[in-house]
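Because showing beats explaining, we let one protein speak, sequence and backbone structure tokens together, and leave readers to judge.
___
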Amino acid sequence: MEDPRLAYLGPATVFQDGSRADVHALLFAEGEPPSSSFFGYYEVFSSDGEALRSGPARIHFSDASRAEAIVAIADEACGGFRIRGQLESADSRNR
């Protein structure tokens, strides 16, 4: 199996149950290109007061890509996530 490749590093916004958190995100791609499996890690730098919790969320990356994800918190400030389904690019949404 091929080692995971860095796919994204930068700011993102996590939306969960009406709350949002601005995070620093690190996203890795798995498998042969084009990848269909992604996982990553995040660190919260700003939120609307509600802490993220383990469970489903929507992540908007600053490169305009978006994804449904499952979040697994490590503590109130950081955790991991796995993309469910497809990573949606701005190009794919505009077709």
Remarks:
- The beta strands are 5-16, 19-30, 37-47, 55-61, 66-75, 78-88.
- Residues 19 and 49 are 8 Å apart (CA to CA).
- The chain has a mean pLDDT of 92.
